[in-house]
């Protein structure tokens, strides 16, 4: 209970620090579109008054209890809805990440709300900073990726929002038994790579002695070719400590297949420790 109250107080303190989030990382995306928000839908999807549809970029949405998630995330999802609906009918600056909509007719985008001080409120980063979403970058703009992870780190350090639940712990790569129970779910895993090998163009990063049972990262060629040239060689990865995020699969032990280079990060060797959030 004490841990929960501490997390709640931390979240309340961060709630009114959100305006401090710098929007400079959005500048490489080019000129913003002007939009008025009509409504918010599930899955961080937004509908503008002119009918355009957007989804907040760089975020993994909360998983509601009716989707098999944690009931705690239902309450957090309501907070997200309140945060965004506060800006209904207001002018927003929209920075699109794509030119072509997805199959649902949505464009991934970063949104900035106008503020009295003129600095703007970066809504995507605000949700990360308050523990109301997890970072899931799909772009190769390093400054933007770094800003999203920095915003998330603020909430992780305070164990607030999604990070106050053991369900969203940082998993050590040798916790195979625990990860086996999360197959099909989003997870963040960290640990040292024991070996790396290439099979038919796919690189496998192995975290144990037995690839049939231990945690493995699979780097498919369409993703691997977007890495810097030296990172495409399996030998570059051997013995590095990394953090990776995505959906866990159960295939010869726990398996994760990043969808973008930004979803796997090199860490200092001492950083691969399991987090200890409140249950």
Automatic annotation (TrEMBL):
Query: Where would I find the TNase-like domain in this sequence?
Result: 82-164
Q: Which UniProt keywords apply?
A: Signal
**N-terminal signal peptide:** 1-20
Q: Which Gene3D superfamilies does the UniProt entry name for this protein?
A: 2.40.50.90
* SUPFAM superfamilies hit by this protein: Staphylococcal nuclease
Q: Which Pfam families match?
A: SNase (PF00565)
Give the protein name, as stated in the record. Nuclease
Upper lineage: Bacteria, Pseudomonadati, Pseudomonadota, Alphaproteobacteria, Iodidimonadales
